[in-house]
Amino acid sequence: xxxxxxxxxxxxxxxxxxxxxxxxxxxxxxxxxxxxxxxxxxxxxxxxxxxxxxxxxxxxxxxxxxxxxxxxxxxxxxxxxxxxxxxxxxxxxxxxxxxxxxxxxxxxxxxxxxxxxxxxxxxxxxxxxxxxxxxxxxxxxxxxxxxxxxxxxxxxxxxxxxxxxxxxxxxxxxxxxxxxxxxxxxxxxxxxxxxxxxxxxxxxxxxxxxxxx
Length: 213
Description:
CATH class: Alpha Beta
CATH topology: FAD/NAD(P)-binding domain
Number of helices: 5
Shape: globular
CATH superfamily: FAD/NAD(P)-binding domain
Strand content: 15-25%
Number of domains: 1
Protein backbone atom coordinates (compact mmCIF):
# COMPACT_ATOMS: atom_id res chain seq x y z
CA UNK A 1 0.00 0.00 0.00
CA UNK A 2 1.40 3.38 -0.97
CA UNK A 3 1.82 5.53 2.12
CA UNK A 4 1.38 9.27 2.46
CA UNK A 5 4.07 11.52 1.05
CA UNK A 6 3.46 15.12 2.10
CA UNK A 7 -0.27 14.48 1.79
CA UNK A 8 -0.32 14.51 -2.01
CA UNK A 9 -0.49 11.96 -4.80
CA UNK A 10 2.75 11.27 -6.65
CA UNK A 11 2.97 12.18 -10.32
CA UNK A 12 4.36 9.58 -12.71
CA UNK A 13 5.51 9.97 -16.33
CA UNK A 14 2.38 10.63 -18.43
CA UNK A 15 1.01 7.89 -20.68
CA UNK A 16 0.24 9.08 -24.20
CA UNK A 17 0.28 12.70 -23.06
CA UNK A 18 -2.20 12.16 -20.20
CA UNK A 19 -1.26 13.63 -16.82
CA UNK A 20 -1.10 10.59 -14.52
CA UNK A 21 -0.85 10.33 -10.74
CA UNK A 22 -0.56 7.34 -8.40
CA UNK A 23 -2.19 7.12 -4.99
CA UNK A 24 -3.43 4.37 -2.68
CA UNK A 25 -7.13 5.24 -2.77
CA UNK A 26 -9.50 7.51 -4.66
CA UNK A 27 -12.57 8.66 -2.75
CA UNK A 28 -15.39 9.75 -5.07
CA UNK A 29 -17.67 12.18 -3.24
CA UNK A 30 -16.54 15.25 -1.30
CA UNK A 31 -19.51 15.66 1.04
CA UNK A 32 -19.81 14.46 4.62
CA UNK A 33 -19.44 10.81 3.59
CA UNK A 34 -16.28 11.39 1.58
CA UNK A 35 -14.76 13.54 4.32
CA UNK A 36 -15.47 10.81 6.88
CA UNK A 37 -13.77 8.21 4.67
CA UNK A 38 -10.70 10.31 3.85
CA UNK A 39 -10.27 11.27 7.51
CA UNK A 40 -10.26 7.60 8.48
CA UNK A 41 -7.77 6.79 5.72
CA UNK A 42 -5.50 9.61 6.86
CA UNK A 43 -5.59 8.39 10.47
CA UNK A 44 -4.46 4.99 9.20
CA UNK A 45 -1.63 6.48 7.15
CA UNK A 46 -3.17 5.75 3.75
CA UNK A 47 -2.61 8.23 0.95
CA UNK A 48 -5.80 9.24 -0.86
CA UNK A 49 -7.36 11.79 -3.19
CA UNK A 50 -10.96 13.00 -2.87
CA UNK A 51 -12.90 13.97 -6.01
CA UNK A 52 -16.26 15.75 -6.18
CA UNK A 53 -18.41 12.91 -7.50
CA UNK A 54 -19.47 10.92 -10.55
CA UNK A 55 -20.23 12.95 -13.66
CA UNK A 56 -23.96 13.04 -14.49
CA UNK A 57 -24.87 12.05 -10.92
CA UNK A 58 -28.04 13.98 -10.11
CA UNK A 59 -27.68 13.39 -6.36
CA UNK A 60 -25.37 15.60 -4.28
CA UNK A 61 -22.52 13.63 -2.72
CA UNK A 62 -24.03 13.44 0.72
CA UNK A 63 -26.50 11.17 2.46
CA UNK A 64 -29.62 12.82 3.91
CA UNK A 65 -30.30 12.10 7.57
CA UNK A 66 -33.82 10.76 7.88
CA UNK A 67 -34.30 11.53 11.57
CA UNK A 68 -34.53 15.25 12.40
CA UNK A 69 -32.76 14.70 15.71
CA UNK A 70 -29.65 13.74 13.76
CA UNK A 71 -29.40 17.04 11.86
CA UNK A 72 -27.58 19.06 14.55
CA UNK A 73 -25.11 16.21 15.03
CA UNK A 74 -24.58 15.99 11.29
CA UNK A 75 -23.81 19.71 11.03
CA UNK A 76 -21.31 19.49 13.88
CA UNK A 77 -19.66 16.41 12.39
CA UNK A 78 -19.35 18.14 9.03
CA UNK A 79 -17.70 21.13 10.72
CA UNK A 80 -15.22 18.86 12.52
CA UNK A 81 -14.41 16.92 9.36
CA UNK A 82 -13.81 20.13 7.40
CA UNK A 83 -11.48 21.28 10.17
CA UNK A 84 -9.62 17.97 10.18
CA UNK A 85 -9.22 18.03 6.39
CA UNK A 86 -7.90 21.59 6.45
CA UNK A 87 -5.60 21.00 9.40
CA UNK A 88 -4.05 17.92 7.81
CA UNK A 89 -3.91 19.37 4.27
CA UNK A 90 -5.86 16.46 2.83
CA UNK A 91 -6.00 16.26 -0.97
CA UNK A 92 -9.62 17.24 -1.65
CA UNK A 93 -10.32 18.36 -5.20
CA UNK A 94 -13.70 20.04 -5.17
CA UNK A 95 -15.03 20.85 -8.60
CA UNK A 96 -13.28 17.84 -10.15
CA UNK A 97 -15.85 15.30 -11.33
CA UNK A 98 -15.08 11.71 -12.30
CA UNK A 99 -15.61 10.96 -15.98
CA UNK A 100 -14.91 7.22 -15.86
CA UNK A 101 -13.74 4.44 -13.55
CA UNK A 102 -12.19 1.20 -14.75
CA UNK A 103 -9.72 -1.60 -14.18
CA UNK A 104 -6.28 -1.42 -15.73
CA UNK A 105 -5.62 -3.89 -18.51
CA UNK A 106 -4.48 -7.19 -17.07
CA UNK A 107 -6.40 -6.72 -13.82
CA UNK A 108 -9.20 -9.16 -13.12
CA UNK A 109 -12.09 -8.94 -10.69
CA UNK A 110 -11.21 -11.60 -8.11
CA UNK A 111 -13.49 -14.08 -6.41
CA UNK A 112 -15.02 -12.87 -3.12
CA UNK A 113 -12.34 -14.54 -1.01
CA UNK A 114 -9.37 -13.33 -3.08
CA UNK A 115 -7.29 -10.52 -1.57
CA UNK A 116 -5.15 -9.85 -4.64
CA UNK A 117 -4.79 -6.12 -5.26
CA UNK A 118 -6.61 -4.78 -8.29
CA UNK A 119 -5.32 -1.67 -10.02
CA UNK A 120 -7.94 1.00 -10.72
CA UNK A 121 -7.89 3.97 -13.08
CA UNK A 122 -10.06 7.03 -12.44
CA UNK A 123 -10.34 9.55 -15.25
CA UNK A 124 -11.05 13.24 -14.65
CA UNK A 125 -10.82 16.33 -16.89
CA UNK A 126 -7.34 16.90 -15.41
CA UNK A 127 -5.96 13.45 -16.19
CA UNK A 128 -5.73 9.95 -14.75
CA UNK A 129 -5.48 8.72 -11.16
CA UNK A 130 -4.19 5.17 -10.57
CA UNK A 131 -5.05 3.55 -7.25
CA UNK A 132 -5.28 0.29 -5.34
CA UNK A 133 -8.80 1.08 -4.13
CA UNK A 134 -11.81 3.25 -5.01
CA UNK A 135 -14.47 4.38 -2.53
CA UNK A 136 -17.85 5.62 -3.78
CA UNK A 137 -18.88 7.94 -0.95
CA UNK A 138 -22.43 9.28 -0.91
CA UNK A 139 -22.95 9.02 -4.68
CA UNK A 140 -26.50 8.62 -6.00
CA UNK A 141 -27.86 5.09 -6.18
CA UNK A 142 -28.68 5.17 -9.94
CA UNK A 143 -25.18 6.39 -10.80
CA UNK A 144 -23.59 3.76 -8.54
CA UNK A 145 -25.63 0.91 -10.00
CA UNK A 146 -24.86 2.06 -13.55
CA UNK A 147 -21.14 2.08 -12.77
CA UNK A 148 -21.25 -1.36 -11.12
CA UNK A 149 -23.04 -2.84 -14.13
CA UNK A 150 -20.50 -1.33 -16.52
CA UNK A 151 -17.72 -2.96 -14.49
CA UNK A 152 -19.40 -6.37 -14.57
CA UNK A 153 -20.61 -6.50 -10.96
CA UNK A 154 -24.02 -8.11 -11.28
CA UNK A 155 -26.70 -8.01 -8.60
CA UNK A 156 -26.70 -10.85 -6.10
CA UNK A 157 -25.86 -11.92 -2.60
CA UNK A 158 -22.14 -12.09 -3.34
CA UNK A 159 -21.77 -8.67 -4.96
CA UNK A 160 -20.71 -6.84 -1.80
CA UNK A 161 -17.97 -9.41 -1.14
CA UNK A 162 -16.83 -9.17 -4.75
CA UNK A 163 -16.63 -5.39 -4.51
CA UNK A 164 -14.50 -5.50 -1.38
CA UNK A 165 -12.22 -8.13 -2.88
CA UNK A 166 -11.70 -5.95 -5.94
CA UNK A 167 -10.94 -2.89 -3.82
CA UNK A 168 -14.19 -1.09 -4.65
CA UNK A 169 -16.23 0.18 -1.69
CA UNK A 170 -19.67 1.79 -1.50
CA UNK A 171 -20.45 4.01 1.49
CA UNK A 172 -23.75 5.82 1.92
CA UNK A 173 -25.31 4.84 -1.41
CA UNK A 174 -26.10 1.89 -3.65
CA UNK A 175 -26.44 -1.18 -1.45
CA UNK A 176 -25.42 0.72 1.67
CA UNK A 177 -28.41 2.98 2.35
CA UNK A 178 -27.66 5.03 5.44
CA UNK A 179 -30.43 6.04 7.86
CA UNK A 180 -28.33 7.93 10.40
CA UNK A 181 -25.10 9.84 10.75
CA UNK A 182 -23.81 7.25 13.21
CA UNK A 183 -24.32 4.45 10.68
CA UNK A 184 -22.64 6.50 7.96
CA UNK A 185 -19.58 7.05 10.16
CA UNK A 186 -19.50 3.34 11.00
CA UNK A 187 -19.46 2.46 7.31
CA UNK A 188 -16.76 5.06 6.62
CA UNK A 189 -14.56 3.62 9.37
CA UNK A 190 -15.05 0.09 8.08
CA UNK A 191 -14.17 1.10 4.52
CA UNK A 192 -11.07 2.95 5.73
CA UNK A 193 -9.97 -0.06 7.75
CA UNK A 194 -10.43 -2.47 4.85
CA UNK A 195 -8.58 -0.21 2.41
CA UNK A 196 -5.69 0.09 4.86
CA UNK A 197 -5.57 -3.68 5.29
CA UNK A 198 -5.23 -4.39 1.59
CA UNK A 199 -1.54 -3.66 2.01
CA UNK A 200 -0.46 -4.31 -1.57
CA UNK A 201 2.10 -2.03 -3.21
CA UNK A 202 1.02 -0.34 -6.41
CA UNK A 203 3.16 -1.04 -9.46
CA UNK A 204 3.11 2.26 -11.33
CA UNK A 205 4.90 0.80 -14.31
CA UNK A 206 2.08 -1.41 -15.59
CA UNK A 207 -1.39 -0.99 -16.94
CA UNK A 208 -3.26 0.69 -19.74
CA UNK A 209 -6.64 2.36 -19.45
CA UNK A 210 -9.52 0.00 -20.21
CA UNK A 211 -12.29 1.53 -18.10
CA UNK A 212 -15.84 2.56 -18.82
CA UNK A 213 -18.06 5.32 -17.53
